[in-house]
């Protein structure tokens, strides 16, 4: 397949390109496009055959449901059975934005999109390109991240090209994703609502709307027989680079000392080591490729840079990646959720 590639200026959108992309989506094609979370791989959410192409292009398990993206509130009426009051309150506060709500779906959404579930995730992105593409297509767009399944999600066009060139119809570039991690998912089919995946809309922010909202405990721990994530997709390997990842967790000085000790052990084995550090610690490591995620005082920058940093280590062909841990508060919960998954919960406590 010949994949067409374009870049759009968000301040002066090319309406002809948007029109072309809308037609491709409506006619059953696949398009990678930017959102504020990560880049998405979109297809007509109401077209089973189009949605199947997403699973093929990504190599994604077909029991992993997709999120449906809309551009206007009035699109909800034909997609979901009802919208609980708490969902309405959350939408009012956080849409458009990096929040997905699980609601009971109507039959118009095929089982292929929902992976056979009676519910569906709905999101209204804030990214202007994403919104204009949805409007132009005239249909809701099913869109997981625009990468090969299991790899770190793409936050720029180049990574979409790397993974999907020749597999889809169109790749459209815009700005680098502002959040850098996938949307917060909240199940509104239960009462109180439950956070199934943490993201840019933090638990603390959600509790200001309803203090009873809670987070699924299983998403922050290694799956066990009696503790499994409620979200179907969370059971799969996610966000993983080629090299194995190990997280060193504890008081910062001890973490630095332990990472330096581990580095020397790997160097002795002839291994190339990558370290995910921060601005405050990047100069305290030796004999490794060190990349700072940003300042510990700015978790937003750390989240934004996480996936791209993991991919950079792939580019550098390191044999092992060591990462500092972060406090599990605010956006740190989402960061550690992704780090834990990328490492397969391989955590060294110090």
TrEMBL record:
This protein's GO CC annotations: cytoplasm
Catalytic activity: L-threonine + hydrogencarbonate + ATP = L-threonylcarbamoyladenylate + diphosphate + H2O
Any Pfam family matching the protein: Sua5_yciO_yrdC
A GO term for molecular function: tRNA binding
Signal peptide (residue range): none
The UniProt record lists the keyword Nucleotide-binding: yes
Residue span(s) of domain YrdC-like: 15-201
Primary location recorded for the protein, binned into one broad class: cytoplasm
Location relative to the cell: Cytoplasm
Biological processes, Gene Ontology terms: regulation of translational fidelity; tRNA processing
Residues where L-threonine binds: 37, 69, 123, 143, 183
Keywords attached to this entry: ATP-binding, Cytoplasm, Nucleotide-binding, Nucleotidyltransferase, Transferase, tRNA processing
SUPFAM superfamilies: YrdC/RibB
Residues at which ATP binds: 60, 64, 145, 153, 197, 239
Entry's EC annotation: 2.7.7.87
NCBIfam families: L-threonylcarbamoyladenylate synthase (TIGR00057)
PANTHER family xref list: SUA5, THREONYLCARBAMOYL-AMP SYNTHASE
Function: Required for the formation of a threonylcarbamoyl group on adenosine at position 37 (t(6)A37) in tRNAs that read codons beginning with adenine.
Protein family: Belongs to the SUA5 family.
Protein name stated in the entry: Threonylcarbamoyl-AMP synthase
């Amino acid at each position: 397949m010949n994949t067409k590639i374009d870049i759009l200026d968000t301040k002066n959108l090319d309406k002809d390109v948007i029109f072309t992309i809308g037609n491709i989506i409506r006619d059953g094609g696949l398009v990678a496009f930017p959102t504020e979370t990560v880049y998405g791989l979109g297809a007509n959410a109401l077209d089973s055959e189009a949605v199947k192409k997403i699973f093929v292009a990504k190599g994604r398990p077909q029991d992993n449901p997709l999120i449906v993206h809309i551009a206007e509130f009035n699109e909800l009426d034909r997609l979901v059975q009802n919208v609980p009051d708490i969902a309405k309150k959350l939408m009012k506060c956080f849409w458009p934005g990096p929040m997905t709500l699980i609601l009971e779906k109507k039959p118009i959404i095929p089982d292929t999109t929902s992976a056979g579930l009676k519910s569906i995730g709905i999101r209204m992105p804030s990214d202007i390109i994403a919104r204009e593409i949805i409007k132009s297509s005239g249909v809701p767009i099913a869109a997981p991240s625009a990468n090969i399944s299991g790899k770190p999600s793409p936050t720029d066009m180049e990574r979409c090209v790397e993974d999907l060139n020749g597999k889809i119809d169109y790749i459209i570039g815009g700005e680098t994703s502002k959040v850098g991690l996938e949307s917060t998912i909240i199940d509104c089919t239960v009462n109180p609502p439950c956070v199934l995946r943490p993201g840019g809309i933090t638990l603390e922010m959600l509790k200001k709307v309803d203090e009873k909202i809670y987070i699924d405990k299983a998403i922050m721990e290694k799956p066990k027989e009696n503790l499994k994530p409620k979200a179907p997709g969370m059971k799969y390997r996610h966000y993983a680079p080629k090299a194995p990842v190990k997280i060193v967790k504890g008081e910062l000085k001890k973490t630095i000392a332990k990472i330096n000790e581990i580095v020397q052990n790997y160097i002795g084995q002839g291994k190339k080591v990558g370290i995910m550090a921060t601005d405050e610690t990047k100069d305290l490591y030796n004999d490794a490729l060190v990349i700072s995620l940003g300042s510990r005082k700015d978790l937003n920058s750390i989240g934004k840079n996480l996936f791209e940093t993991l991919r950079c280590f792939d580019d550098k062909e390191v044999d092992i990646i060591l990462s500092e841990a972060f406090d599990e508060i605010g956006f740190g919960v989402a960061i550690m959720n992704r780090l834990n998954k990328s490492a397969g919960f391989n955590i060294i406590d110090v």
